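Comment thread on ticket #2218

A.B. wrote:
> Attaching the input chain for the structure job we discussed in standup.
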Amino acid sequence: MINRNVVGAHYGLKDWIIQRATAVIMAVYAVLIAIVLCAVRPSTFEAWQGVFANGVVQFLTFLFFVSLFCHAWIGVRDIWMDYVKSTGLRLTLHVLTVTVLVGYTAWAATILWRL
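C.D. wrote:
> Ran it. Output below, let me know if you need it in another format.
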């Protein structure tokens, strides 16, 4: 019988698909927001506020940020798993990374919906 030592998190295909899906979401958002900004051409704070006061733009912007943070989590997590050998330090870095990304998500939501 062969005993294999399994290492790593084995997320594989699921994480690869999530990374590609979030990249597509961010790319589509970038194109759409560029079209909106070229059409509206906001030059004052009030004009910028008007663009992001629209519920659809708010939702799409929040979706962009959630996609960005999921994309970042997978990438940074893989860096910690590949290059940080100490389990305790790696766990600490994972917790700090998740805490920061969740905080950024809450901050983005606060900014978007306080307009």
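A.B. wrote:
> Thanks. Noting for the ticket: The radius of gyration is 19 Å.
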